[in-house]
């Protein structure tokens, strides 16, 4: 059964915020409810550019070294070793500096997870294993334990990247960062625990999760767009996430989205100096990678926009970006969706778990139009994340109005 929330929308009014935040991007984005859709090129033209693209995504070894990341070493006996711990002190300018802080210790985390028992494990990723930890004072966190592998330099670089990124961001739709612990060869990151699993889990209806209705999917897409806009426009320096995907979108119990996993994040180019991109080894996940970044090794904010376009198609269809179990014509989800759209058979790509209603059909058509603009093969033809946020807000407003009208 499709999970439905109680909706009582009137006149397209904005939903009340679920929590306060030291920075709210919503106020700067949602003042004007009549947002124009980019019209530089027709949607069908944009779609035709990429209808035949097949991206061979890969992740070559990163050449970045972590030699400059100083791990604190133990200085006493085996039973009295001290761990290097860190947290952040937030300042009025939004930046953060690393400081020594005794809030978390390795032994406290070790005891709380009973020697990192599998029974406390809640996730697994490229960085390592994620555990749910409840400390003695009753507070609950998510603990990310880095893999111990032969690629230690790369692991150290990713660990440092995530600390530096999380330490400077504060937004309602980004996971909160609480600190880190380095103990001998253990590297541990402590972040906010988000209780309701990942977006991908819900799209798969994993472990009995209910189907997300279209209203909730639009809310999630809008939350993610706001979070990425914040990273691109309101952090200093700007941040490129580089791994936007459904398994990195966590959902709260109220089904609000939080973007997680900053291990691949990079600082955006310094536009004041005239730079247009960052040259870097390709990082990301197969199916979500920007084809221009893949071929040129030039990373920009528009690489996140491309990944966001893939995510939008995933949210609407329920399919993963690459589905090897399907026939050749349906294996690459965005290529399949574009062909259906350009042939006038848009409704057939709607997630079969959703009902075909006027409101759902409107949302499907409008969001796909924007998604295909995000998927343009050349970054100059893609909208900014701010523009995506504005368009999504307008689509969500129209959807709610139509939903109220048809439910009368």
TrEMBL record:
User: What CDD domains does this protein's entry cite?
Assistant: STKc_IRAK
Keyword tags: ATP-binding, Kinase, Nucleotide-binding, Serine/threonine-protein kinase, Transferase
Is-annotated flag, keyword Protease? no
- Pfam families assigned to the protein according to its UniProt record, in alphabetical order: Pkinase (PF00069)
Domain called Protein kinase: residue spans: 116-373
Compositionally biased region (Low complexity): 10-31
**Residue ranges, compositional bias (Basic and acidic residues):** 68-81
Q: Where is the composition biased (Polar residues)?
A: 32-41, 88-97
Give me the ranges of the annotated region Disordered.
1-41, 65-103
Where does the chain bind ATP?
148
- Gene3D superfamilies associated with the record: Phosphorylase Kinase, domain 1, Transferase(Phosphotransferase) domain 1
Family, as annotated: Belongs to the protein kinase superfamily.
Protein name from the UniProt record: Calmodulin-binding receptor-like cytoplasmic kinase 2
């Amino acid at each position: 059964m499709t999970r439905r929330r109680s909706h009582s929308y009137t006149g397209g009014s904005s939903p009340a915020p679920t929590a306060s935040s030291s920075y709210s991007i919503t106020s700067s984005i949602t003042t004007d409810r009549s947002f124009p859709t980019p019209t530089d090129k027709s949607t069908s033209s944009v779609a035709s550019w990429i209808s035949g693209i097949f991206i061979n995504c890969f992740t070559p070894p990163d050449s970045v070294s972590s030699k400059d990341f100083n791990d604190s070493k133990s200085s006493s006996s085996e039973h009295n070793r001290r761990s290097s711990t860190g947290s952040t002190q937030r300042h009025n300018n939004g930046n953060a500096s690393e400081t020594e802080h005794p809030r978390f210790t390795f032994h406290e985390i070790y005891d709380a997870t009973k020697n990192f028992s599998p029974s406390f494990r809640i996730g697994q990723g490229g960085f390592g294993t994620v555990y749910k930890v409840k400390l003695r004072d009753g507070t609950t966190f998510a603990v990310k334990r880095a893999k111990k592998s032969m690629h230690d330099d790369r692991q150290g670089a990713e660990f440092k990247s995530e600390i530096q990124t999380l330490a400077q961001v504060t937004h309602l739709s980004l996971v909160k960062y609480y600190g880190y612990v380095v103990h001998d060869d253990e590297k541990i990151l402590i972040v906010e625990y988000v209780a309701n699993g990942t977006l991908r889990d819900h799209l798969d209806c994993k472990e009995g999760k209910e189907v997300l209705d279209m209203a909730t999917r639009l809310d999630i897409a809008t939350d993610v767009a706001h979070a990425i806009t914040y990273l691109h426009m309101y952090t200093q320096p700007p941040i490129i996430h580089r791994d936007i995907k459904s398994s990195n979108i966590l959902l709260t119990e109220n089904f609000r989205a939080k973007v997680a996993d900053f291990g691949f994040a990079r600082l955006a180019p310094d536009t004041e100096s005239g730079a247009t991109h960052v040259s870097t080894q390709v990082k990301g996940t197969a199916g979500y990678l920007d084809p221009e970044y893949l071929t040129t090794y030039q990373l920009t904010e528009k690489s996140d926009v491309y990944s966001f376009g893939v995510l939008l198609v995933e949210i609407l269809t329920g399919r993963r970006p690459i589905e090897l179990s399907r026939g050749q014509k349906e294996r690459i989800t965005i290529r399949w969706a574009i062909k259906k759209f350009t042939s006038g058979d848009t409704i057939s790509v709607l997630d079969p778990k959703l009902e075909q209603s006027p409101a759902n059909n409107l949302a499907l058509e409008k969001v796909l139009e924007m998604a295909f603009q995000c998927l343009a093969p050349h970054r100059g033809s893609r909208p900014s994340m701010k523009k995506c946020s504005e368009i999504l807000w307008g689509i969500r407003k129209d959807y709610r109005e139509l939903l109220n009208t048809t439910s009368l």
